[in-house]
């Protein structure tokens, strides 16, 4: 326990010294929400959205963007870099096992995504009058599953990529479709019904719908939670199956 705590402290210091990763993980989702919220038409109620505003939709979307940046963009290169530089291999012969380092990175990036989510929710409420989630337990359940799914996706990307450069390529291939399914380009709620149903079977499409439902006061649909859970389990299994220490 002491060794794992020491690894976590050391990795926390290194984590705090990465301003670019912290910017994209913590600041960028809030900046995007600010830019969108400053568009006058996005602050007007729309009959097509059931009386809601576009900025209301983009708070849960920005929450998911924080998870995507933390789990898919920031985490995989770190894991691959440690493996490529032989750090994981050397740790396998030391009292502190590589799993402690991997666990610390997953914890730190997950915490970074959650911190960014809190910032986005607070910004939406204070700056643009977006209501806080009406069904808090449902929102927290969906947020937790989204966080686990993002971290599992990042671990799977690192597992199937042999080098840091390969990780960047694979991460980019996964990143852009994930942004679309999460609703960053176009909110899922305004897409055609057929496309919405397809998106609901993707991990972040289901997460977007679950967070939106909880924000409006309903417990997220069990289908959405089930899709998120299934994807998370599959991605964890893939990461465990294909991850190599060297």
From TrEMBL:
Membrane topology: Multi-pass membrane protein
Domain of life: Bacteria
Keyword annotations: Antibiotic resistance, Cell membrane, Membrane, Transmembrane, Transmembrane helix, Transport
Ranges of residues in domain ABC transmembrane type-2: 20-246
Transmembrane segments: 21-42, 57-79, 100-127, 139-160, 167-186, 222-243
Compartment list: Cell membrane; Membrane
PROSITE patterns, alphabetized: ABC_TM2
Primary subcellular site in the record, as a coarse category: membrane
Family: Belongs to the ABC-2 integral membrane protein family.
Protein name: Transport permease protein
Provenance organism: Actinomadura vinacea
Organism taxonomic ancestry: Bacteria, Bacillati, Actinomycetota, Actinomycetes, Streptosporangiales
């Amino acid at each position: 326990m002491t060794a794992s705590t020491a690894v976590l402290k050391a990795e926390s210091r290194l984590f705090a010294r990465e301003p670019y990763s912290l910017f994209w993980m913590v600041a960028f989702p809030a900046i995007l929400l600010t830019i969108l919220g400053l568009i006058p038409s996005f602050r007007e109620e729309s009959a097509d959205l059931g009386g809601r505003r576009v900025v209301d939709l983009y708070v849960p979307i920005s929450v998911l963007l924080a998870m995507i940046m933390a789990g898919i963009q920031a985490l995989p290169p770190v894991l691959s870099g440690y493996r490529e530089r032989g750090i994981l291999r050397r740790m396998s012969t030391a009292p502190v096992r590589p799993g402690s380092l991997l666990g610390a990175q997953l914890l730190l990036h997950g915490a970074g995504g959650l911190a960014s989510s809190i910032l986005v929710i607070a910004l939406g409420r204070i700056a643009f009058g977006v209501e806080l989630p009406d069904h808090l337990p449902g929102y927290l359940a969906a947020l937790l599953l989204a966080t686990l799914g993002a971290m599992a996706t990042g671990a799977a990307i690192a597992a199937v990529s042999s080098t840091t450069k390969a990780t960047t390529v694979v991460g980019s291939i996964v990143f852009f479709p994930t942004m679309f399914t999460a609703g960053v380009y176009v909110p899922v709620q305004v897409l055609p019904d057929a496309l919405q149903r397809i998106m609901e079977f993707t991990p972040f499409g289901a997460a977007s719908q679950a967070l939106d439902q909880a924000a409006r006061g309903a417990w997220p649909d069990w289908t959405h939670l089930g899709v998120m859970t299934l994807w998370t389990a599959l991605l964890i299994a893939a990461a465990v199956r294909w991850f190599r220490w060297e």
